[in-house]
Write a structure and sequence with these properties.
Helices cover about 35% and strands about 25% of the residues. By secondary structure, it is of the alpha/beta class. The protein folds into two domains: about 1-170 and about 290-380, Aminopeptidase, CATH 3.40.630; about 175-285, Alpha-Beta Plaits. The radius of gyration is 24 Å and the shape is elongated. The relative contact order is 0.20. Bound molecules: zinc ion (2 copies). The site of one zinc ion has 4 residues, from loops.
Length: about 375
Amino acid sequence: MERLQETLEAIFMDLHRHPELGKEEVRTTARVKELLGERNIAIVEHDVPTGVLANIGDPSGPVIALRADMDALPVTEETGLPYASEIPGKMHACGHDFHTTALLGAAMLLKEREDTLAGQVRLIFQPGEEINYGAQALLDTGKLSDVREFYGLHTDPNLDVGTLGIRPGPIMASPDRFKVRITGKGGHGAEPQSCIDPVPCMASMILALQQVVARRISPISACVLSITRAVSGNTWNVTPEHAEIEGTLRTMTDTERDLGERVLRETAASVAKAYDCNAEITYLRQSRPLVNSPEQTAFADRVGRELGFTVIAQEMSMIGEDFAMYLKDKPGCFVRVGTGKGPILHHPQFVADRRALARTSEYLATLAQRRLAYLRTLEE
Ligand SMILES: [Zn+2]
Ligand SMILES: [Zn+2]
């Protein structure tokens, strides 16, 4: 365990020094392939330019996937760490370097235990999580269609090392994005009678859209709508032609997501009509709400406790996570791993405590190993 920890720390610090944004994970991909290759772990070829799929174990048995994301963020690091990012404006501020390293560690352990595996573990080193790209892109390759269950994890700066946060059911939101472009008729600020002013229309729309969540969706549900950008005009005596608002609508279930989108569109269109303006509404669906399957979550919880982790009931979060796409048609579980309390995810001072690495690898490997054994017993 100590040797594994040392090996993983070296890999982690190297990845941390060399962050790459989504779809650009060329060095990280090469590094992962090299480390898997050194241990004779079989790579699965696929046509997504970055990211790695690999197999360990018995292909005649059930297949379970373990997923880590690999991409960094356009953030300038301010941790002052000796292994801080060497690339200006880029940083592993979401701990995906930790995830990649922990999965490599799990791969090393699983390779040693390969003869005992009751099925196959598919390793997923996924690109482009932050840009809502990689999970769907890898699913679209068809190389994951044989996977029975998906497991993944994320660093958590609210939990101590040695703690896991696990909760069945909805845990993360659909981070959808919307934009409304309002068109009126510009003119002189002194002559409203000859203009159609988009500014009061925008003001009403901002207030009306607050009702989508407040008055139309059950208060028991976790939902949020935020208008995060509102712009119009560029001087004091000209009535502008256009106004634009942008924001995010986040829900925890597909039903509320559908309802929210429909009510948002209707509300924006109605307000625009009331002001004689035209509204062009763009609603961009990002990843789905992330919903943990009850049985797989209970299993992940049990394995965590058996390995000596403190397991707490994870709080829900309105942040999005594209691991949700793997759970569209298949069961699975997404776990939060304590990496030491400190600045939040995406913060320039975020640090994932590397002392949690080997234990996290042990957890992933044991979870996959035991789950495969369990699935095999169901088949017999
Ligand atoms: Zn992130
Ligand atoms: Zn992340």
